[in-house]
Amino acid sequence: MTTDNESPNNIGTIKDNSYTIERYKYILNQISTINENVSKYLTLFQTLTTAIVGGGITVFLNWKKMDVAPELAIASINGLTILLWILTAFVFISITVGILSWVDYRNEEVDLLEKTNNPEFRQRPRLINFWRWYETYILVFTVVSVSVITFFVETQIIPLIK
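User: That's the sequence. What structure does it adopt?
Assistant: Structure tokens below.
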């Protein structure tokens, strides 16, 4: 006679539960990593934006002293502006992909929880709630700030060099 612990069905259940728990831990870890990456991208954006704007200010303040032709100074500032837009595109795309990955992992989390717990335990993420996600405001901040910088450079800085 076998006990319940020796039953092949119970052994399979223990293995399934172990797999489920490990998978759930993995999903939660991935979601946490995605959230951390947004902070890293924001830090990268702030640091490199400061460096690029600092380079533009240096060119603007020193082009006459360094005997640089106005056309070259304008080209340098425009190049830095383009570099700033490339940085913004990188951060925007990276955060957007992170959001999509987060949605996938959250859906996987809900699927897993529905199989093991009450089906109403956790709701699926809804993209309509994007206005509640801090990533949305980071994306808006990056695009708006670079747009304002570009507008300022084109309307205030470039005319002073010509």
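The longest helix spans residues 8-62.
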